[in-house]
Amino acid sequence: MVGKRLILAVMLLIIPFGVYAESRIFAELSSFGHLLWDEDEQWDFIGSASGELDIRSQPRAPVQARLQLRATAPITVTAMYQQLVISGDDIDTELEIIGALGAGMIEVPRAHLRFRFPVTDAYSFRVTAGIDRVTWGLGSVLKAGDLLFGPDISGEHTGLAAFDEVRSETAMLFAFYFPVGDMSYTETVVRPRSGEVPDMGFRNHSAFGTVSLESAYLYRGEDAEHVFALSSQGEWLGADIYGGVSYTDDFHSWEDLHEGITLTAGAFRTFRVGFDQSLNIRTEGLYSFADDGRLLLYGDIGYIPGRTVQLFARALVEPADDLETAAGTGISWNIFQGMNIRASAMSGFSTSGPKNFAVSAGAVYSF
């Protein structure tokens, strides 16, 4: 009954978008098989089918809206190895297959309204209300200036095997964007939290030729903390060089102030290889003074050997913690228009040995 009501609600949302707003509707269907292994010597085989519907209003309109829905239905087959004593010292191993249809999952990554509020005939500011992504800081994965979603992706490494963005977090928020000249702006954000004081902050972004400078402040209501950040980006020897510093404190004590400091730095460069090939290289690092210091290193290599093939390899390393490493690699082949065959692998390991491993292969069709 709940599923029927959900489908009806989605249909009621789609019809007004398509008929009255002349919206653009994008759909994507995917089907993958995943072979998984963990340090408990247990193998899993998961088959997942998912669909994504992305409804957007016309661009450059005074009022814009976007609704993105994602549904996933996993089917899990678990292989469990059990040791059975046959007789005396003879031990045999039996493979038991357990199959289960997993519960489906519905996500709403984005659902927002965006419009321009006119102040005068020559000036207006932009308002965003709903579930959306606001990117603060300068960089890609490790960036001290990302006060809303954090400076790193620790504990959530699935993005290392993503063919699009490594980081794509969204949240319910209210944002107000004020242009200040041609290359500068100020943005304020309020992020509600159920039962807590909301997060509130602002950032100022300015550009001077090839150099960008961004300062930001955020009050985290849940922890009653104040966070300040300063980020910059420039160009040197054909590469984008960027870095940032942030400071977090509740100002209840003036001891160990250095523990609130986080530093990040990185570089990105694209190399042309032949006529239609390109090689992208990104390196980033993060150092936090909290808890006796923490160092993270990130590397990303992307290679496009032709117009229809894409390859990448990424890794996130924590050298001080037993060389804890999360790595991902993948290949995508655009075999037909809108049709991509993809395969990827992820692994977690350290100097003590492998911890997990996953291989995925399947197809994605966009229309």
Could you characterize what this model shows?
This protein has an 18-stranded antiparallel beta barrel. The model is unreliable at 1-21 and 79-98 (pLDDT under 50). The protein has one helix and 19 strands. It is globular and about 55 Å long. The chain is mainly beta and 367 residues long. Helices cover 5% and strands 63% of the residues. Strand 18 and strand 19 form a beta hairpin. The longest helix is centred in the N-terminal third of the chain and has 19 residues, at 2-20. It has one helix at 2-20, and strands at 24-38, 43-56, 63-87, 90-101, 105-118, 124-132, 171-179, 185-191, 199-208, 211-220, 225-236, 239-249, 261-273, 277-288, 294-304, 309-318, 324-336, 339-350, 353-366.
Structural class: mainly beta
Distance between the termini: 29 Å
Helix and strand sequence: HEEEEEEEEEEEEEEEEEEE
Largest sheet: 18 strands, antiparallel, barrel
